[in-house]
Amino acid sequence: MSPYQALFDLNDGVIQVSGTNRLKERFVKIQGCMDRLDCVDNVVGQINELFPEGEDSLDLIRIEVVKLLDADADISLQDLHSKLITLLARPEEDDEQDKVRIMSLHKSKGLSSPVTIITGCVEGLLPKQPEGSLSVTEQQAMIEEQRRLFYVGMTRVKASPSEGKNGVLIITSSTQMPYGDA
């Protein structure tokens, strides 16, 4: 079952999960937004619905969307979405600025940083333990993928020994994941 179907069934009472009232409320709100978007038949109207003018928390995204629309007035919503995701996931950056970039191992491929911190190397999480229902071949492929991702993370460190700049790699680990009350 997809997450969407699970939320739909949860909201309709088909399935019951304790402690999900706020999640159901959020799902109903999102469904309302999606219904409103379905009634708007043009990209500009949908953008105004998604990123209303004057909504301070959305101003930066709205500015970028308007730039994309100005560059191509006939852009489809799907193409706009794709370009916006690319823009947000891989912004143009000045490597000389001091900043912290937080991302998944998947997203870090092709990027580098003078200091790289890999967190969450928790037993059973990274590397993730293969599920018992998988075949031996599938388990081996999963372990190889975990190794590859970890390698990607470790090789993000940017060093310039010729310039006297060393890179720093920090890896945090634990034997168990601390879970809090939800």
Q: Overview of this structure, please?
A:
- It contains 6 helices and 2 strands.
- It has 182 residues and is mainly α.
- It folds into 2 domains: 3-89, no CATH class; 96-182, P-loop containing nucleotide triphosphate hydrolases (Rossmann fold, 3-Layer(aba) Sandwich).
- A two-stranded parallel sheet has the order 1-2.
- Helix 6 links the parallel strand 1 and strand 2.
- Helix 1 (3-12) crosses helix 2 (21-38).
Write a compact overview of the structure shown.
45% of the residues lie in helices and 8% in strands. It has 182 residues and is mostly helical. The protein folds into two domains: 87 residues, no CATH class; 87 residues, Rossmann fold (3-Layer(aba) Sandwich), CATH 3.40.50.
Query: Order of strands across the widest beta sheet?
Result: 1-2
Give helix % range: 40-55%
- Helix and strand content put the structural class at mainly alpha
**Biggest beta sheet summary:** 2 strands, parallel
User: How many β-strand runs?
Assistant: 2
Could you name the ranges where pLDDT drops below 50 across 5 or more consecutive residues? none
